[in-house]
Amino acid sequence: MQCPGRNLDAIRCNQLLDVAEKLIDEQGVVSFRFAQIAKGAGCSTNTLYKYFESKEDVLVCLFLRNTTSSQIPVFIDENPDLNIREQAVLPILFTFEVVKRSPIFNILRVVAINSMFWQLASSEKVEILRSRVNLFWSRVKSPLEEAVKKGELKATSLEIDDLSQALYFFLAGATSSFESRLMDEQYFIANDDVGYRHISRLMNHYQWREPITREMMQSLSGQISVFLDKSRGNIRSCDSCLAIGKCFDCRKE
């Protein structure tokens, strides 16, 4: 199921996704039914099937239009003076700030990347999902490689791989635990200082010319917070999602 190519189709697609997101917020991912989207949007089921093959297609698209990969490039453009250390922790801190504001984002993240769901989506949506997951991975790894080139970080290629995976796995575990609310505070404390401490410990295990500090991360989180409060909703669209995909494809060529 291909993404809309015309402006009117993109507007209708966004309307359907808005309804689906509201249904998930009210009923949960499991309980809401595919046909409810058409009813909530005031259209026929035939119109719904024009844009989505299944509930799984909808869930993947909702994740794609909410993903931080669509927002981080805009933040970087608006903050061109970020140093390489700030860029290195940006994907992690950005995701934390998004999750704080939109719990549904984390639900969509967990569901969309679960193979039991995404394998049931249309092949076109799956390919976009793959590219977006890899794009986020590159946003974690590329600043570390750039830091080595600039002499800001001493690390081998293998160490860069290790650090990238450590950051990615920490992020996945922390956000999942934050959303589940199952852990008692004695096992999991969801506050920024604890997160900064974990990130700095992971980062500063390697040789940075200047250490990754709590103060730097706190300041960057503040910038991200202002950005999200200002632009939330302007970025979450089919157009933005498609534009990010095109940029990533061009960069690979």
Automatic annotation (TrEMBL):
Keywords for this entry? DNA-binding, Transcription, Transcription regulation
What GO molecular function annotations does the UniProt record carry, in alphabetical order?
DNA-binding transcription factor activity; transcription cis-regulatory region binding
* Alphabetical list of PROSITE patterns matching this protein: HTH_TETR_2 (PS50977)
Residues of the signal sequence? none
The answer to whether UniProt assigns keyword Transcription to this entry is yes
Q: Which Pfam families match?
A: TetR_N (PF00440)
Can you give the residue ranges of the HTH tetR-type domain?
10-70
Kindly indicate which segments of the sequence are annotated as binding DNA: 33-52
Q: Give the InterPro entries listed for this entry.
A: Homeodomain-like_sf, HTH-type_TetR-like_transc_reg, HTH_TetR
Q: What name goes with this protein?
A: TetR/AcrR family transcriptional regulator
Species for this entry: Shewanella pneumatophori
